[in-house]
Amino acid sequence: MNPSRRLPFAFLVFALAVFLLPLGISGSYVIGVMCFVALYGALALGKGVLLEQAGIFSLAHPTWFGLGAYVTGIAAVQGVPPLGAIILAAVFVAGVAFVLGAPLLRLQGYYLACATFSLMLIIEIIIANLGSLTGGHDGLMGIPPLTIGGLALEGDRPYYYLSWGLCLGTYWFLNNLMHSRMGRAIVSFNDSETASRCLGINVAGYKLRLFIITAVLASLAGSIFCFWIRYIMPALFGFPLLVQLITMIIIGGGKTLYGPLLGSLVVMWMQELIHTYLGKVLPVMTAEVDALFFGIIIVVILIFMPGGLAGWLERLIPAGKRSHARINPS
User: Fold this and answer.
1) Which residue from 102, 270, 266, 154 is spatially nearest to 258, judged by alpha carbons?
2) What's the DSSP call for residue 232?
3) Which tops the pLDDT comparison, 242 or 328?
4) pLDDT of residue 91
């Protein structure tokens, strides 16, 4: 294996800890929260690569997540086998991302952000108004459980391993991608599109390819979410989810590949702590309360740790090595 593509040792330790965690926990609360960490972490990883590594300011990630969930759920309700429903959703999302991405990616910066944000709102409205197919604002119910080899997955633990398998697989895939020829092209046109074109790099082609790849990864997360919750509604895939993903990237640090996953872990558990302890003081924990606390945290992170928690760790480890070298010169 190419050394540049090897997974960090810390990641392998983390993956082992994730695998062993359910063996030491009897309740389902921690398992359920960690399922959300994994699914939103997979989403944040893809969005982090788009936003920070490639400089593509797309806000459509909740759209691909929602479309993946809805197409999977509708197909499963209609009797399509679960695996076939997941593949059908991924192909559908890839097609939509290709058709819409080709013209949208000609835009840059705030123009692209506004266009993809509008796309998210339009898709959410369309889903809400297709009541006979999607269940409308009431949501899609009656989704059957995911079956593998005739065995139905019930409870949180099977979906825990499935969710983390997707999340860690997403990291592995994106790690290989960013160390490939395509990854080098992505880094190049993020630095300067003009220079990249002069070097013969097909910037538009690589942008569209990455746009489709991250959309499909989001669709797979949506499919697992659909079978795990077995109930989906348009509000689950709208603006609040977008804010959560951006918060994860900022807090975790999008300049590193693992930063958004770290951000997902921190944000989801911090949100649970806020709800647990402030719920005793405030009668109703609304989204505005979450927004207030995370807004304060984002401001603090941007001022004192502009690279996020991952950037802080990247600086802390070399500093520790230098300090150890001064103490032990040999």
Assistant:
1) 266
2) B
3) 242
4) 97
Residues forming beta bridges with residue 152, ordered by sequence position: 147
Read off the pLDDT band of 243 (50, 70, 90).
confident
**Dist CA 295 CA 284 (whole Å):** 19
Residue 330: its pLDDT value, please? 46
Mean pLDDT across 186-210? 89
d(CA 215, CA 151): 29
For the chain, report the end-to-end CA distance as a whole number of angstroms.
33
Residue type, 179: H
User: 234 near 124, Cβ under 8 Å?
Assistant: yes
Average pLDDT across the chain, whole number: 86
Give pLDDT, residue 109: 84
Inter-residue contact 146 to 227 (CB < 8 Å) = yes
State pLDDT tens for residues 118-157: 999 999 999 999 888 998 888 898 898 898 877 878 888 9
Tokens at 163, concatenated: 């969710």
Rounded Cα–Cα distance for residues 64 and 219 (Å): 5
Query: Quick check: 12 pLDDT over 80?
Result: yes
Q: pTM of this prediction?
A: 0.89
Residue 34's identity, in one-letter code, is M
> Which DSSP string corresponds to 163-197?
HHHHHHHHHHHHHHHHTSHHHHHHHHHHH-HHHHH
Name residue 307's amino acid: G
Q: Side chain identity at 232, as an amino acid letter?
A: I
**Paired tokens of 176:** 């290989």
Residue 179 has a CB neighbour count (10 Å cut-off) of: 16
93: left (phi over 0), alpha (psi -120 to 50) or beta: alpha
For residue 148, the cross-strand partners are 151
Handedness of CA 63, 245, 98, 76 (dihedral sign): negative
